[in-house]
C-alpha cells in the first residue's frame, strides 16, 4: 500500500502519509457519509524531483516514507454509490439532473472500472492502484455532469493524470499492460484538452469556475498550460496515419504557442519552466513541419 496510516479508525502509525478527516464527506448522490482520506503535508513527504515536458512533477522517494503519489488523494469516491469526483465537487454540485444521472449510471461505471482495475479498494488507505481506479471512476462520472461545472476540462486533467498513474503502475508492476492503458488515457486527454479549447472559444462551456488548472498538484500553470498541453499532446500522441491532417494541426498549434508565449519577442511576463518548455515544443514542431516540407518538394 502507498499510504501507511492505519485506516478509518483515525489511529496513526509513526510515519503516516495520510489521515482520516474527522467529519465524513456527504455524497450528494446517495446522501450517505463516507470517510475522507487526506494527505499530510510537510515532514519530508514530498521531495520535488524533475518536471517533465507534460508538466508532471516527479516526487523522489524518501527513506522515511518511501515513494508517494500526491495526485491520488485529490479525488474521492463514495463506496456506497461509486460516485467519484474532485473533493470540492461533492459539495459544489447541486444540479438535480446531474445527481440523477450519476445515480442511474452507478452499475455501468462500477462494471467498467472493475474490468480495468479489478479488486480495487474504496475503504482502506488507498494505493496507487486504488487511486487510479478512483480516477477512472471520476472520468466516467464527469461524463454525466452538467457543463456548468466545467466537466470537459476536468475530464482532460483526470485522463492525463490517469496516464501518468498507469505509467507508474507499469514501472511498479511490469507485464500487466498498464503502458498500453496509459496510451489510451493520453489520447483521451488529447481529445478533452482540445475540446476544452473549442468549448471555451465557442462559448459552449465556460471554465471560469476552475481555480487551479494544474495539471499536477505542485503548480497552477493556468489557461496557458491548457494551450501548451493541447499542442504537446497532439505532437506526442496525436494520430499519424493522416499526414496532411497531422501537419495542419501542428501548424495551428505552432501559431497558438507562438502567439500565447510571445516566442521571438520579450516574454518577461511569462517566465519560468512553462516558457522554456513552450520554446522546446515550438522548435520540435517546427522541425517536423520543415522536414515534411522538404519531402513535399522532392
Report on the structure:
This protein has 298 residues and is mainly alpha-helical. 49% of the residues lie in helices and 8% in strands. The protein is built from 9 helices and 8 strands. It has helices spanning 89-92, 96-104, 106-116, 128-142, 151-172, 178-201, 222-237, 243-261, 273-297; strands at residues 18-20, 25-26, 33-34, 37-39, 47-51, 57-60, 75-77, 84-86. A two-stranded antiparallel sheet has the order 1-4. It has a two-stranded antiparallel sheet with strand order 2-3. Strand 7 and strand 8 (84-86) form a beta hairpin. Helix 5 (151-172) runs antiparallel to helix 6 (178-201) and helix 7 (222-237) packs parallel to helix 9. It is globular. The chain starts with 17 loop residues before the first strand and ends with a helix. 36% of the residues are buried.
Strand content: 5-15%
Q: Please write the string of helix (H) and strand (E) elements.
A: EEEEEEEEHHHHHHHHH
Radius of gyration: 20 Å
Sheet/helix structural class: mainly alpha
Q: What is the number of strand segments?
A: 8
Uncertain runs are 1-14
- The share of residues in helices is 40-55%
Main sheet characteristics: 2 strands, antiparallel
Which characteristics define this entry?
9 helices; 49% helix; two-stranded antiparallel ribbon; disordered N terminus; 298 residues; two-stranded antiparallel sheet; mainly alpha; 8 strands
